[in-house]
Amino acid sequence: MTATELPAPSPVVSPAPDRERWLAIGFAGPATLVLVVLFALPLALLFTASVAGPAGLTLSEYEKLATPHYLGVIWNSLRLALLTTGIAFLIGYPASFALARARGVLRSVMLAALFLPLAASVIVKAFAWTILLRSDGLVNTVLIALGIVDEPIRMIFTETALIVGAVNIFLPFMILPIYAVVAQLDHRLVEAAATLGASPVVAFVRVVMPLTLPGIIAGVALVFSLSVSAYVVPTLLIGERYPTLSTTIAKAFLLARQPGFGAAAGVVLLAITLTAVALSARLGRSGGSR
């Protein structure tokens, strides 16, 4: 090497791809193990129990679910979920706008009214509705005192009581996602639409509703998933008069000692819930692409 020659720079050593891969596996490993043990493995066992028979694999438990009686049970669960979701949306959508536009003490009171019920158990809230709606409950007492009715009317153990209680219990899960989106809306967009000649109705339908679609989809998916699989609410508010998939699963495991049938009903309920979530995710992606 001459005096004018400079030593060649040493190459920069980058971390080996294998080392990065093993580091990623090491960080993700514990969480993956928890998911497998607590979620994937129980679901696999549930599905296995639904198709396992004395002579091997069988679909006999699913054939029972295809009979008219259990198709009616499936429809009861879907009807409860659809009615609860629809009514919760009709109430929760305008309530989300009112909450987003409220200020000061009023907003704090509304948020407290929304969050405080979430601290109570579903069992407590369902029992509260049984107390309100029974023959000597507060609702009948007020109706008689106002002269609207002459004697107590039957409210508890009716479909109306079930829907009212379910909407009340699951309503916050509709309001919160929509409120989170509405609170971020730029209200100048509505003013811009008005300057372009759009009426308030057209501006709401063409500008506001598409922007709040992610919150609507999230709220609908949450409320539908919770209400279609509800167990405590129908058990306490209507009982055996309105059998659902969740109550059928409980009876199959706890009373009838038919774990295979209960597992098959559980798989059907899981499929309904996953379908609702998948559809909501697809709608969310399509809405976001537009």
TrEMBL record:
<feature type="transmembrane region" description="Helical">
    <location>
        <begin position="161"/>
        <end position="182"/>
    </location>
</feature>
<keyword id="KW-0472">Membrane</keyword>
<feature type="transmembrane region" description="Helical">
    <location>
        <begin position="260"/>
        <end position="281"/>
    </location>
</feature>
<keyword id="KW-1003">Cell membrane</keyword>
<feature type="transmembrane region" description="Helical">
    <location>
        <begin position="22"/>
        <end position="49"/>
    </location>
</feature>
<dbReference type="InterPro" id="IPR000515">
    <property type="entry name" value="MetI-like"/>
</dbReference>
<feature type="transmembrane region" description="Helical">
    <location>
        <begin position="189"/>
        <end position="209"/>
    </location>
</feature>
<protein>
    <submittedName>
        <fullName>ABC transporter permease</fullName>
    </submittedName>
</protein>
<comment type="similarity">
    <text>Belongs to the binding-protein-dependent transport system permease family. CysTW subfamily.</text>
</comment>
<keyword id="KW-0813">Transport</keyword>
<feature type="transmembrane region" description="Helical">
    <location>
        <begin position="70"/>
        <end position="93"/>
    </location>
</feature>
<dbReference type="Pfam" id="PF00528">
    <property type="entry name" value="BPD_transp_1"/>
</dbReference>
<dbReference type="InterPro" id="IPR035906">
    <property type="entry name" value="MetI-like_sf"/>
</dbReference>
<feature type="transmembrane region" description="Helical">
    <location>
        <begin position="105"/>
        <end position="124"/>
    </location>
</feature>
<feature type="domain" description="ABC transmembrane type-1">
    <location>
        <begin position="74"/>
        <end position="280"/>
    </location>
</feature>
<keyword id="KW-1133">Transmembrane helix</keyword>
<feature type="transmembrane region" description="Helical">
    <location>
        <begin position="215"/>
        <end position="239"/>
    </location>
</feature>
<keyword id="KW-0812">Transmembrane</keyword>
